[in-house]
């Protein structure tokens, strides 16, 4: 097996870094457009290793956005399935199905023939397993234009991250690590266990109901036709229960609204995200992010 290869922008002139990173992506990963709101501070580094039937890549970098548009797909086609785990930072994924936010530990699966825009708000760390579409499970290999599928932190994604880093950075890793990596990637594509699938459905319902201040753990359990006790069981191996998950999703939505809707008052933002009042929203926001909503908006 070939040793890992690396690429970095460190030795590239600042004015040429984004162009270089686009070139590297097209040559080694997938053709896309790369931009940054802070191009004078952009930097990125990749570590990549070819395996049987797949390519494993770790990308670490600063704030930036990559865009796999319809035009770029036509110009640089590639038939692969990407299984991704966000190792560090936060991100947003915009595609035909809408806008979704991602946190460290979340994973997502998509084909490279599907348009998407992936952005990183701050320093980022992303692990990608690039699988030839012909070797992917039938459910993915035959799908030419599905929306990306996002999984919250799961046992499969944790194991994929652990063994992926081991394969990339530990020269002693053997065939058993590579086989486990393939199994974990398949697990993420399949959607994980029954509990993980139920939790993913719960989070989808939470995100759909964020605008309703009456949306609660009881309302979520009712929508899923289970007891609150069963609902809490599904979240028992997470670092937050369903109530905390509802609050976190409201706050993450609020951050996006504050950035994107400068015309919204704080009362408007609170209402859009399901908070009962602007004061309740402000208290929760400060407790979570260490700043008031107004201070966050003014920072840009």
Automatic annotation (TrEMBL):
UniProt entry tagged with the keyword Signal: no
Domain of life: Bacteria
Protein name per Swiss-Prot or TrEMBL: AraC family transcriptional regulator
UniProt KW keywords: DNA-binding, Transcription, Transcription regulation
Residues covered by the HTH araC/xylS-type domain: 200-299
Alphabetized PROSITE patterns for the sequence: HTH_ARAC_FAMILY_1, HTH_ARAC_FAMILY_2
Gene3D superfamilies: Homeodomain-like (1.10.10.60)
SUPFAM superfamilies documented for this protein: Homeodomain-like (SSF46689)
InterPro entries, alphabetized: AraC-bd_2, AraC_XylS_family_regulators, Homeodomain-like_sf, HTH_AraC, HTH_AraC-typ_CS, Tscrpt_reg_AraC-type_HTH
GO molecular function, one term: DNA-binding transcription factor activity
């Amino acid at each position: 097996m070939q040793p890992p290869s690396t690429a970095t922008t460190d030795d590239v002139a600042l004015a040429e870094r984004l162009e270089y990173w686009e070139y590297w992506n097209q040559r080694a990963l997938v053709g896309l457009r790369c931009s940054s709101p802070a191009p004078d501070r952009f930097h990125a580094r990749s570590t990549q290793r070819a395996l049987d039937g797949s390519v494993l890549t770790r990308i670490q970098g600063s704030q930036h956005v990559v865009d796999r548009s319809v035009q770029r797909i036509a110009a640089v086609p590639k038939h692969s399935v990407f299984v991704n785990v966000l190792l560090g930072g936060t991100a947003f994924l915009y595609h035909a199905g809408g806008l979704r936010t991602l946190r460290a530990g979340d994973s997502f699966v998509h084909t490279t023939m599907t348009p998407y825009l992936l952005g990183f708000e701050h320093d980022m760390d992303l692990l990608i397993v690039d699988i030839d579409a012909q070797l992917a499970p039938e459910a993915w290999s035959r799908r030419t234009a599905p929306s990306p599928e996002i999984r919250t932190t799961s046992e499969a994604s944790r194991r994929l991250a652990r063994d992926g880093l081991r394969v990339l950075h530990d020269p002693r890793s053997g065939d058993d690590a590579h086989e486990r990596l393939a199994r974990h990637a398949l697990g993420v594509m399949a959607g994980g266990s029954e509990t993980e699938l139920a939790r993913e459905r719960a989070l989808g319902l939470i995100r759909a109901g964020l605008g309703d201040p009456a949306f609660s753990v009881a309302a979520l359990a009712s929508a899923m036709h289970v007891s609150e006790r069963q609902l809490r069981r599904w979240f028992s191996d997470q670092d937050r229960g369903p109530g905390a998950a509802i609050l976190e999703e409201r706050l993450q939505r609020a951050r996006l609204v504050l950035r994107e809707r400068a015309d919204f008052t704080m009362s408007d933002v609170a209402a859009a995200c399901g908070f009962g009042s602007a004061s309740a929203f402000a208290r929760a926001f400060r407790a979570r992010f260490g700043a008031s909503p107004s201070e966050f908006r003014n920072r840009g």
